[in-house]
Design brief:
Protein name: Glycosyl transferase, group 2 family protein
Domain Glycosyltransferase 2-like: 65-237
Organism: Candidatus Giovannonibacteria bacterium GW2011_GWC2_44_8
CATH topology of the largest domain: Spore Coat Polysaccharide Biosynthesis Protein SpsA, Chain A
Low-confidence stretches: 210-217, 367-375
Number of domains: 2
Helix content: 40-55%
Number of strands: 11
Largest sheet: 9 strands, mixed
GO molecular function, one term: transferase activity
Mean pLDDT: 88
Keywords: Membrane, Transferase, Transmembrane, Transmembrane helix
Structural class: alpha/beta
Strand order of the largest sheet: 1-4-3-2-5-8-7-9-6
CATH superfamily of the largest domain: Spore Coat Polysaccharide Biosynthesis Protein SpsA, Chain A
Length: 375
């Protein structure tokens, strides 16, 4: 009964926007978030079940550490690993690959072991976590085990291009003043047909500009499926905030911007396997709504207005663009079904972004444990 009334009080304070980020994290996780945002000081060791290193012939330190979090994705992971080792202009001995497994229940470990047997020069490191703590938790673990001076991040359902690492190196060598570079991800489907929800998500990414104009910061920078950062800078910034379930890539570049540093965004894409149902999309949008509220509490100058009417105006703006934008196949075909469907998703998405905050107090809705988030 006490927990019931405590939950009601939290909902009431969320409604009045009268609760702090720290209070919400303490309520959800029963632990105090680091005051200095240094998430790399967290004690990750108790959450690791095993670490396996598949050695290589060359013993020099690599330049790149490619970090891939994974969870129950063995089939797509093999393609991701094959694309990662098929790099041009960067010798295999100059990068290592670190797979951090969030407690997968499939044959991920065997997939990695089988793949590693054929890698003569690239060291493969497999870290198995005890359960699913979330992708950003896993990324931080990978960074802590890395040897390279540059950290390159992608996801287990992405295919990076052959010049991925050389592109990052060329940009960072040419711009020593920036701490990292990133692109975005382009949906593709093994079946050949892109699902409706990924097409809409990709369209909104192209449609909405960065909210902070005339700065080096952009929401598009730092997207963790296609991102490279100098390791020393990553350590100084404290790594990724693993209390976010889906949009840690929003929080990290904000902290970079506030530190007076910058990222470079280039419209270079990695391919992302697109397979969503309406249930998946709706659930993810609700979680993003909760994350956006946490982002508002953590960075109020960035998200000042997150009211129902703000998201209503945002939905109307999207719907206006849907009606006026030219067709852009295969993403937006300008057909009646696309215009009606995209308009429907604009309404649903923005409703979820507003309503998601009210799910925060219900831990079961977020699969919260005391030591991380299930993504």
């Amino acid at each position: 009964m006490y927990n019931f009334f405590k939950t009601l009080r939290v909902i009431y304070r969320i409604e009045r926007d009268n609760i702090s980020y720290r209070e919400l994290i303490e309520f959800l996780y029963e632990e105090t978030p680091p005051s200095n945002y240094n998430f790399l000081n967290y004690n990750y060791a108790p959450h690791i079940s095993k670490i396996t290193k598949y050695g290589r012939g060359v013993k020099t330190k690599p330049i790149f550490s490619v970090i891939i979090p994974t969870y129950n994705c063995q089939k797509l992971l093999m393609g991701t690993l094959q694309a990662a080792v098929s790099q041009k202009d960067v010798p295999s001995s100059e990068f290592e690959i670190i797979i951090v497994d969030n407690g997968s229940m499939d044959q991920t470990a065997g997939t990695v072991a089988g793949f590693a047997r054929f890698q003569k020069e690239t060291e493969i490191i497999y870290v198995k976590l005890k359960k699913n703590y979330g992708a950003d938790f896993a990324r931080n673990v990978g960074a802590l085990w890395s040897q390279g001076s540059l950290l390159a991040f992608t996801d287990d359902d992405c295919l990076v291009p052959p010049d991925w690492l050389s592109w990052f190196k060329r940009i960072l060598d040419s711009h020593p003043e920036v701490i990292g570079a990133s692109g975005w991800k382009e949906p593709y489907s093994i079946s050949g047909d892109l699902d409706f929800y990924h097409r809409f998500a990709f369209w909104t990414h192209k449609f909405f500009p960065t909210p902070l104009k005339n700065t080096a910061y952009s929401f598009r920078s730092g997207y963790t499926a296609n991102f490279c950062c100098r390791k020393e800078s990553f350590k100084k910034l404290g790594g990724f905030n693993f209390y976010f379930q889906h949009i840690g890539f929003y929080d990290f570049p904000v902290r970079i911007y506030k530190s007076g540093l910058s990222l470079i965004y280039e419209p270079r894409m990695v391919k992302h396997e697109a397979s969503f149902s309406f249930k998946d999309y709706f659930h993810k949008s609700l979680i993003m709504g909760a994350d956006l509220y946490l982002l508002h509490l953590l960075h109020p100058n960035l998200w000042k207005n997150i009211s129902f009417f703000y998201f209503l105006k945002r939905a109307k703006k999207e719907m206006g663009a849907i009606l006026s934008d030219p067709k852009d196949p295969p993403i937006f075909r300008k057909s009646l079904s696309d215009m009606v469907g995209f308009s429907f998703l604009a309404i649903i998405s923005n409703f979820c972004y507003w309503f998601g905050r009210y799910r925060i107090p219900f831990k079961s809705a977020f699969h919260i444990s005391n030591t991380g988030v299930d993504a």
